[in-house]
Amino acid sequence: MMYHSMQYSVFTDTDWLFPDSSHSSTSSVELAAPRGGHGAAQILCDLPEETTPLFSWENGEGPEVLLYQLLLAGVNENTSADLMTTTDYETCREFVTKKAPFDVYDVLRPIDEPLPRGRSALYLCAEASPQTRPGTYTGALRLNEKEVIPVRCRVSAAQVPPLGEGAVGMLNFFDYDNLAVQHAVEKGSDAYWELFRQYVRAQLQMRCTHILLPAGEAVWDEGVLTGFDFTLARRAGQISLEEGAPWLCGGHIAHWHAWNTSEYYPSWDQKTGITTPEGYLQIQKYFKQWQGIIRENHWQGRMAQALADEPQTYNDITYRVLASMCRKFLPGVPIIDAVETTNLGGGIDIWVPKQDTYEKWQETYETLKEAGEEMWFYTCAFPAGPIMNRSMDLPLTASRAVMWMGALYRLSGFLHWGFNYYIGDDIWHSACCPHKGALLPAGDAHIVYPGPQGPYKSMRFEAQRAGAEDWELLEQAFQRAPEETENLIRSVCTSFRDYTRQGSVLLEARERLIRLLEM
């Protein structure tokens, strides 16, 4: 039997791989993982025949290893220099990785069948539990009978705290309708909830501390609002807590019609302002019922509440009116929202300004923080350009280093709207999803993909998870050596627009961080 040689090479988990990537000179896997965290690498293979990779640790001892095939996703347009996307490459070539359209290895599919002949990319991830003994473990990834890739993983004594016990919070919005559409199941069915459970597990693996629940659905009788149906919210909350979620977050209930107007309107009634007597009675009805659900399920102390996404300077006072209604009927439940203003004092408990909004009004937000206000941050499609976001045509370092910026500014949490907002007919080949007559930057609407049994993670998912682990370690390092820790972060990033594009720089800083915590 004639043997055909195989070509393979190893890459870090901090830089993108493309179908036309050249092989590297690295032929072994070197990983570093704190206890409670992970270390990972990518492997590019040109397979002469069908094969099933197998991994084993020497003497059978070592952290759990997960092995995935990387699948391609299509980026149909580039991120614009100022807003959304563009087909004019010359205006964005300085900050994007590649000219669109192009394919990139973003999707992680668990390997449950042989890999086909030809080019394949793999993702190898070593998960160190808090109980893993610190030390260096050696093993091997066998690609076929002849080709064996040496793997070494150094597990550090430094430890990422268990979810809910650390310093960093996280919330990623969840689309309950798209779960049903993309997986072709009936919303609320047994199959639906089993899929939802898989999505919750993914959110928790990414270190989300808060799971966003759907809002109650209005019940009308001949044009009269009679109450609200919280069936979906109740079941989603029960499953999330069964899976170990530290916090639940009630879904948004109101919004403005235009960003520069003052009134808010209930999500179920776009004609009745919340500042009118009728608006108040509707909000009262909602919160009284919701309070009953919370008490019935013993969720007190584990609930937060979102009210209205992105209050602006034009409607911040009205937002505070809405918040006063919430506080009347949900006493003790912290209010959290993405914000575009600094004038919400007393109306919000967890401020979440966008990354550029925070830098724009940093002095004011710092003053609020020093006064004891909790301050997170968020990213989304706007602004575009090189600013840190998890877009698929930006360097992969942006998806991870954004968490380092949270540590640099001494913030305490991160929010993103797009966990699974699968918009459009072909998410696999058109990552720039349609939105209000334009296209969102590639991947902004989703960080997972709809697999047959649940979500497929992405390289951006893994980068965000790694960044959250880094952030927890950086918070520990600040307690030991604040000046050295700040300098360490600044070797990676100095603002949301100024960050390294080289994965090796980020990994070198991470290694220094781990060594600092081991001293």
SSE layout:
Elements: E1 7-12, E2 29-35, E3 38-47, E4 54-57, E5 64-75, E6 78-79, E7 85-86, E8 102-110, E9 118-127, E10 135-142, E11 148-159, E12 169-172, H1 176-183, H2 190-205, E13 210-212, E14 217-221, E15 224-229, H3 231-242, E16 247-250, E17 254-255, E18 265-266, H4 277-296, E19 303-305, H5 316-329, E20 336-339, E21 350-353, H6 355-360, H7 362-370, E22 374-375, E23 377-379, H8 397-408, E24 413-416, E25 434-435, E26 438-439, E27 449-450, E28 455-456, H9 459-480, H10 482-490, H11 503-518
Parallel strand pairs: 2-11, 12-13, 12-24, 13-16, 16-19, 20-21, 21-22, 23-24
Antiparallel strand pairs: 1-3, 3-9, 4-10, 5-8, 5-9, 6-7, 10-11, 14-15, 17-18, 25-26, 27-28
Task: Explain what you see.
- The chain is an alpha/beta fold and 519 residues long.
- The chain has 11 helices and 28 strands.
- The strands form 9 sheets. Strands 19-16-13-12-24-23 form a 6-stranded parallel β-sheet, with helices on one face.
- α4 packs across α5.
- The model has no long low-confidence stretch (mean pLDDT 96).
Overall pLDDT metric? 96
Q: The biggest beta sheet, please?
A: 6 strands, parallel
N- to C-terminal separation? 54 Å
The helical percent reads 25-40%
Strand order in the sheet with the most strands:
19-16-13-12-24-23
In one word, what is the shape?
Answer: globular
Low-confidence stretches: none
Rg on CA atoms, Å:
24 Å
Number of beta strands:
28
Structural class by SSE content: alpha/beta
Tally of contiguous helical segments: 11
Beta-strand percentage range:
25-35%
